[in-house]
Design brief:
Immunoglobulin-like; 1 helix; three-stranded antiparallel beta sheet; 9% helix; four-stranded mixed beta sheet; 150 residues; mainly beta
């Protein structure tokens, strides 16, 4: 969704917010934080907007979250509002990348949209447990490989 540059006298109704908002202000900043770098299918992805600011460096009044893309075959809501406050969550149902967008604002203006890619994978280890690959898991895997072939 493009957020048009408008004159100071123009107002638009931002879909889902139900409030009048005014032009984008490049000094406003939307920041998306997540509790992990990678997730597994059917785990809860928790997001927050800590650090997001509006003018003059105050906390935003409005948070517009949406999922702008999801893996093919996913039933996760792609283009809807997922939260109206500074935290949002969703449960991915397919492996792949989910692109999340956030716009913050107040009664004066909105931030430019910012996005974050959420990577979702599924790996089954030798005990049948799903694991999220990280550096320690890869080192363990390499160690197991070395031990089995040495």
């Amino acid at each position: 969704m493009n957020y048009p540059k408008l004159s100071s006298t123009s107002k638009v109704l931002l879909l889902g917010l139900g409030r009048d908002v005014v032009p984008t202000n490049d000094l406003y900043k939307a920041i998306i934080n997540s509790d992990k770098d990678r997730y597994i299918v059917r785990s809860i992805v928790r997001l927050d907007a800590r650090g997001s600011t509006t003018s003059p460096n105050t906390d935003p009044k409005y948070y517009y979250w949406r999922i702008v893309s999801a893996p093919i075959g996913s039933n996760v809501q792609r283009f809807g509002l997922i939260a109206k406050d500074d935290a949002a969550q969703f449960t991915p149902d397919k492996t792949g990348i989910y692109k999340i967008e956030l716009v913050v604002g107040d009664d004066t203006a909105n931030s430019p949209p910012t996005t974050k890619d959420i990577r979702v994978s599924i790996i089954i280890d030798s005990s049948g447990q799903q694991v999220v690959p990280d550096v320690s898991y890869l080192w363990q895997l390499l160690g197991d490989f070395y031990t089995n072939f040495n």
